[in-house]
Amino acid sequence: MTGGTGSVQFFRNSKVSLAAFLVFDVLLAYWLITLFQARDEVNSVNTLNLLGAIKYPDPYRLTPFHLDDQHGEPFLVDDFKGQWSLVFFGFTSCPDICPITMTELAQAYRAITETPDLTNPQVVFISVDPKRDSRLAVKQYVEQFNSDFIGLTGSEADIDALASQLFVAFSEVDREEMNPNKLGNELQKSDDYMINHNIHLSLVNPKAELAALIRPPVRHESLVEAYYLLVSE
Questions:
Q1: In this model, does residue 4 exceed pLDDT 80?
Q2: Most C-beta atoms within 10 A of its C-beta, which of 44, 55, 188, 189?
């Protein structure tokens, strides 16, 4: 009887030990997986930072706005849904930064579309100069870079409704600073002014959420690599 009881006790102890070992093994595996995931995430963040990209851990959901595209069709928040979007704010008479950025965007877009298994983005240019940038002017401007690009315009208030959500501010440069020799009515009639605005790119995910920002200066090689990392995660 004693031997039988000892065998049962040993068997029970063995089961307890095995269960404890299995629990420990599962916890160890979970810890290792978490550790590797955290390390990979840190490496990814560091890589993105080197590429000029800032990824938001919790993307910002965009709220409703109303703009018009270069064909006169409304562009609403739902038009961001279903695809990734690269968004840039600028103005058609910008002498340097805007055309340089748009050129880099065009080169990046071409490279992305030629890369197998990489989701093509929609590229959206939004004018921050509604006084001078008519729908036709925006249409002609974006088509210089790529006929697939979307150009948007609207009232200053409508533009700001989206711009503020993408951390873009814009303002007309004081005309007196631009034209110190012009006074009175002549000054008021002048169209010789510049627009100050943020020049980063915004990456909007298929849920119409701000997922990341791309810091300037934009370079197409870095943009393609950053885009790949951001949309593949």
A1: no
A2: 55
